[in-house]
């Protein structure tokens, strides 16, 4: 074992000391990878290059009608669109899904390799396993449904890789990997989700994850490289959000004649009213909340002049004519005598889109995997929670700003 200070001519100690120095945290010969970008980009979700695109990159493409389909070789397939598209609908690496082609040999999802070429007239995709020529194909559709969810049983987890990644080698049991990562959004856009099915509602967990993948040799002559399999989540930051089909979200309200009297508001009062806890509804609508502002005025009937209502959350499942009752006690009065009754005048009639902020910072972490080749990737995960499996929704796009990842092998 090397000792410090080295006082004699012990060759073994000298050799140990030199080897330790060039492999340790001083940086001499140390294995280190990093990624850093500050420019805005759209994450493609691909598990291979390109991981991001500076131009708009959708992560969901609705089914496109196909004309002719052609087998090019055992691994490569060409699909012509029935009509030219306005722009190339797919990006390199997209894992497209083909259905309804005759013969059905052309159907399936192209995982891993995916799209190798696309223009406005056709798309070419490459499979990972060989398949013999089925002859000419016709009809069917092609789509990108990697981040499309329906139905998705509770617990279903789908990940989308970002461009924050790095491959690193661990050679000994005493090697640790020093990790850090961060990702932000630009213009507060983040990830845009859209609920497709009117009236469907449920909870979904969104996570920013720092994941570790382990390498295996492909063992095939056609693609003699490594492939990577999920190994572990090293760090995670999660948030739960509510998906709503949008139909029945409150647009406008008015004060109903059945309201009680307003108390004397001198000085003025400002009240945040939370659905289900501080109000009741005549229908099945829920998850709404309001802010009620009562300027200084004498006691009397609630009017638009002395009562200001701000809709903080429009809720869902409301219909025109529904009434919402706020107890007088929550407006500094007496329940029954001073109740405020609101009537729903208009609601939304189409599904909605909304944004999720993925901003996350993972401070320095130590990982100690077994010796091997590893790929660390900052990823987004979408996990269906109980009650969310009946929601039909998809991720439209994933826009990110500044992002970075570092992975550094150090000795124990």
Any key phrases for this structure?
Jelly Rolls, 3% helix, eight-stranded antiparallel beta sheet, 3 domains, 50% strand, six-stranded antiparallel beta sheet, flat, mainly beta, single chain, 412 residues
Please provide a written account of the structure:
The protein is mainly beta and 412 residues long. The chain has three domains: 34-43 and 149-245 and 352-411, Jelly Rolls, CATH 2.60.120; 61-145; 250-347, no CATH class. Helices cover 3% and strands 50% of the residues. The protein is built from one helix and 31 strands. The longest helix is centred in the first third of the chain and has 13 residues, at 11-23. Residues 25-29 have low confidence and may be disordered.
List the helices and strands and how they pair.
Layout (H helix, E strand, L loop, with lengths): L10 H13 L8 E6 L3 E3 L8 E2 L7 E13 L2 E6 L15 E3 L8 E2 L4 E5 L3 E5 L10 E2 L2 E4 L3 E2 L7 E14 L4 E9 L7 E5 L5 E17 L8 E19 L5 E6 L5 E2 L6 E6 L5 E2 L4 E9 L5 E2 L6 E9 L6 E4 L13 E8 L5 E4 L3 E8 L4 E13 L8 E8 L2 E9 L1
Antiparallel strand pairs: 1-31, 2-3, 2-30, 4-5, 4-10, 4-11, 5-9, 6-7, 6-11, 8-9, 12-30, 13-29, 14-28, 14-31, 15-27, 15-30, 16-17, 16-29, 18-26, 19-23, 20-22, 21-25, 22-24, 25-26
């Amino acid at each position: 074992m090397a000792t410090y200070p080295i006082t004699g001519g012990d060759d073994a100690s000298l050799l140990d000391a030199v080897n330790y120095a060039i492999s340790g945290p001083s940086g001499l010969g140390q294995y280190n990878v990093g990624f850093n970008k500050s420019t805005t980009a759209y994450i493609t979700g691909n598990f291979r290059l390109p991981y991001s695109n500076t131009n708009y990159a959708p992560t969901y493409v609705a089914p496109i009608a196909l004309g002719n389909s052609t087998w090019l070789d055992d691994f490569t397939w060409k699909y012509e669109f029935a009509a030219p598209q306005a722009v190339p609908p797919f990006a390199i690496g997209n894992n497209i899904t083909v259905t309804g082609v005759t013969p059905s040999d052309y159907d399936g999802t192209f995982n891993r390799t995916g799209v190798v070429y696309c223009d406005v007239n056709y798309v070419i995709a490459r499979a990972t396993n060989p398949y013999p020529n089925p002859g000419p194909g016709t009809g069917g559709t092609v789509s990108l449904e990697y981040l499309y969810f329906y139905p998705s049983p509770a617990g279903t987890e789908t990940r989308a890789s970002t461009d924050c990644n790095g491959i690193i080698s661990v050679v000994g049991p005493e090697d640790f990997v020093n990790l850090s990562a961060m990702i932000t959004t630009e213009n507060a856009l983040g990830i845009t989700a859209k609920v497709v099915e009117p009236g469907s509602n449920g909870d979904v967990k969104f996570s920013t994850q720092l994941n570790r993948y382990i390498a295996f040799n492909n063992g095939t002559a056609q693609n003699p490289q490594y492939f990577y399999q999920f190994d572990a989540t090293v760090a995670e930051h999660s948030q739960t959000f509510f998906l709503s089909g949008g139909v029945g979200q409150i647009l406008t309200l008015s004060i109903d004649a059945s309201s009680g009297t307003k108390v004397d508001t001198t000085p003025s009062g400002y009240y945040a009213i939370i659905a289900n806890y501080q109000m009741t509804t005549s229908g099945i609508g829920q998850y709404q909340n309001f802010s009620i502002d009562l300027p200084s005025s004498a006691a009397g009937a609630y009017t638009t002049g002395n009562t200001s209502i701000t809709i903080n959350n429009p809720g869902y499942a409301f219909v025109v004519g529904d009434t919402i009752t706020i107890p007088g006690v929550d407006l500094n009065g007496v329940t029954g005598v001073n109740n405020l009754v609101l009537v729903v005048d208009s609601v939304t009639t189409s599904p909605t889109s909304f944004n999720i902020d993925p901003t996350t910072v993972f401070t320095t972490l130590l990982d100690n995997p077994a010796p091997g080749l590893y790929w660390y990737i900052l990823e987004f995960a979408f996990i269906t929670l109980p009650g969310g499996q009946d929601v039909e929704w998809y991720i439209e796009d994933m826009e990110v700003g500044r992002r970075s990842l570092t992975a550094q092998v150090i000795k124990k």
